[in-house]
Amino acid sequence: MLELYHHGTSVCAAKARIALAEKGLEWQGRYIDILKGEQFAPDYLKLNPKHVVPTLVHDGRIIRESTLIGEYLDETFPDPPLQPRADRERQEMRDWLRTATDIHVPAVKTLIYTRKIGKVLHKNQADDVKYHSLQRDPELLAFHSRASTGIGLPKEQVERAEETLLRLFDKADNALAQHRWLVGDRFSLADISWVPLHFTLIGVDFPFHRYPHVSAWADAIRERSSFQEGVLRWCAKF
Fold this sequence. Notes:
This protein has two domains: 75 residues, 3-Layer(aba) Sandwich (Glutaredoxin); 138 residues, Glutathione S-transferase Yfyf (Class Pi), Chain A, domain 2, CATH 1.20.1050.10. The protein is an alpha+beta fold. α1 crosses α9 and α5 runs parallel beside α7. The radius of gyration is 18 Å and the shape is globular. It has a four-stranded mixed β-sheet with strand order 2-1-3-4, covered by helices on one side.
C-alpha cells in the first residue's frame, strides 16, 4: 500500500502527487494541515523528523523528500518511465532536480512569503517560541524567524531570490527552445520538479512573459491529467 502524507499548497507535495498520477498508482492520502501545525504532531515526527511534507510510506518503508520519492516511484514502478534512458540526459535530469531542491527555501519560498504568504500568515511571539522548540532544521528556523513573524526578509535576500529565479528560468527557456521537455523529448521527473514552482510563482506575479518557451511548456503540462490530479485538485489557484 502507498500512503502519502501531504498538504494541498505544498510545492514539494505536489511533485509527489504528480508522479503518483503519472504512474497511475492508487494511494491513500494522509493530509497534514501545515497551517494548523499538524506536521509537529508526535506521530508525524516519527515519520519525518524535519516536520515537512511530503512523506511516502510504501508497505512500511519510509521515503522522505519529493526528489527521493519521485526516483523511488520510478524505480519501483517503472512503467511509464519518468527518467531518460541515456546517461547524459539522466545526469541533466538530476541537475534539474538538485537545483529545484537547492533553491526551494532561498529563492522560491523567499519570494512567495515576501509577496503573498507572509502578508497573511503571521506567527506571534508565542507561536514563534513554540516553532523554535519543535523545528530542528537550521535553514527553516532562520527563514521563519523573519519571514512569518512580521519582521520581513532582508531586501538583499529577496533581490537575490528573484535574480536566481530569473537566471534559472532563462536557462529553462533556452533548453525548451531546443526540445519539448526540460530534458530531451521525454517527460521526466525534471518537468515534475519544476512545474509546481511555475504554478506557485504565477501566483506572485513572476514575469513569465519573458519566457515564451517556459509558458508553452507549462500550458502543455496543465493539460495532463497528472497535473489536474496532482495540483489543481488540491489547489485550484495559488
